[in-house]
Design goal:
128 residues, four-stranded antiparallel β-sheet, two-stranded antiparallel sheet, 2 helices, 6 strands
Amino acid sequence: MATPEKSFETFANPAPDRDYTIRLSLPEFTCLCPRTGQPDFAVLELEYVPDRLCVELKSLKLYLWSFRDRGAFHEAVSNEIASDLGAALSPRFLRLTARFNVRGGIATTIVVERRQPGWEPGSPVHLP
């Protein structure tokens, strides 16, 4: 039986010579409110341009599961996840968008970005 983990499994980027974007939607993130202990629910959207490594999805799921019984402010947990992924993958670019469900009439969205020094995205292509 799988258990929560605080680490990631990675694999070699199959196309390290090009920039491409990996987009993951993670709709079942939960943690606890550090003040009340009540559950907080969020949809996480992860976008990254890999360099040498990609994250293995089951390990990402088990990593996110490790927050389920932990109290954390939205801002802190979003930055922690982005930092941990950045440290494990060293991507060219990473953006984590955390959309927390309404609680007390307030919906919170946190966006965290990081990029390698000197990396610039290519120009967008607009097709007719």
